[in-house]
Design brief:
Oligomer: single chain
Largest sheet: 10 strands, mixed
Shape: globular
CATH class of one domain: Alpha Beta
Strand content: 15-25%
Low-confidence stretches: none
Helix content: 40-55%
Distance between the termini: 50 Å
Structural class: alpha/beta
Mean pLDDT: 88
Number of helices: 10
């Protein structure tokens, strides 16, 4: 197996498509296909199952995935480590992956302070879902990741930074006009929109909604899973359901009045915010400095 083949395999595994991988890697689709055929010839079995235009990992592909991620990440670590000892004060790059809704005031403040303290450093920022953030860190594409909920993957180390408040949002014209309810009883029979529980994790926003509805005693609640915060917001605005969302993700809509928040007496729901790093990976001085800054700026997550 060559590095080129492994990187191609990882890109297809992440995007779920030869076409998307071709676009992301800047190579033709026949070139992508040739690399995967060579990889499969090298290991003697198929790593992808073709499902029309989409693909899924075979059992062999799933077995290969963590080792491929680790191999590529180690090479990227080596490049960074050598650069750090030979750069002599030259420009360095910190690569971050974050959940989009965390690109809020606390992160903006940390980035500004980081740039002021490290003027010769640059930051490359990728936004993704929590699951994708972890994948980018595992593969070494990102040195640090900011996501919701600790990742149970033994390859990763999750450090708590704080917690973000979750709010119950309804359409502006919802029949319940009160801002505060004693309990969830009046919401029995509502159509809920929620995230799918994150695969392989014991905690996620999808799990929080499941636990909330179960604790309220709702039997067979109607829940539509929508793996997009923007999609959920537009559906709630259209009156097609209600949802539990991170406060930072709905501030604009609440301010404009297209969504309303209903508070439940005595109920405080939060989702933890963590920074994830490779457990045995190389941590550059820049990465360590940024984590320390995050500790200074993220207490406002509790506000």
């Amino acid at each position: 197996m060559t590095l080129d083949e492994i990187e191609t395999f990882l890109c297809i595994a992440r995007t779920g498509s030869f076409t998307d991988a071709s676009r992301r890697l800047g190579r033709s689709q026949p070139a992508i296909s040739r690399r995967i055929r060579q990889l499969e010839d090298d290991i003697g079995t198929a790593v992808f199952e073709r499902r029309g235009r989409a693909v899924a990992l075979t059992d062999a592909g799933n077995a290969l995935l963590p080792h491929a991620e680790s191999a590529v990440a180690c090479l990227r670590d080596a490049e960074r480590a050598v650069h750090d000892v030979t750069s002599s004060g030259g420009t360095s790059v910190l690569r971050l992956a974050i959940v989009g809704t965390l690109a809020d005031s606390h992160l903006v403040g940390a980035l500004r302070a980081f740039e002021a303290r490290h003027p010769r450093a640059s930051v490359e920022l990728s936004t993704a879902t929590s699951r994708e953030v972890s994948a980018l860190v595992r593969s070494g594409e990102a040195q640090l990741g900011l996501r919701y909920f600790a990742d149970g993957d033994p390859q990763l180390r999750s450090t708590p930074l704080g917690a973000e408040k979750l709010v119950l949002v309804v359409p502006a014209n919802h029949a319940i006009q009160q801002r505060r309810l004693r309990n969830l009883a009046r919401l029995a029979g509502e159509h809920w929109l929620g995230f799918p529980p994150e695969r392989g994790q014991s905690e996620s926003l999808g799990h929080v909604l499941e636990h909330l509805l179960s604790a309220a005693g709702f039997a067979n609640p109607r829940v539509t899973r929508v793996d997009s915060l923007t999609g959920q917001k537009r559906l709630v605005e259209a009156g097609l359901g209600i949802a539990l969302m991170p406060r930072s993700g709905v501030r604009e809509e609440l301010a404009l009045g297209s969504l309303r928040a209903i508070e439940i007496q005595g109920l405080r729901l939060e989702q933890p915010v963590v920074v994830v790093r490779r457990r045995d990976g190389y941590e550059s001085p820049l990465a360590a400095a940024f984590v320390e800054l995050l500790r200074d700026f993220t207490p406002e997550l509790h506000a």
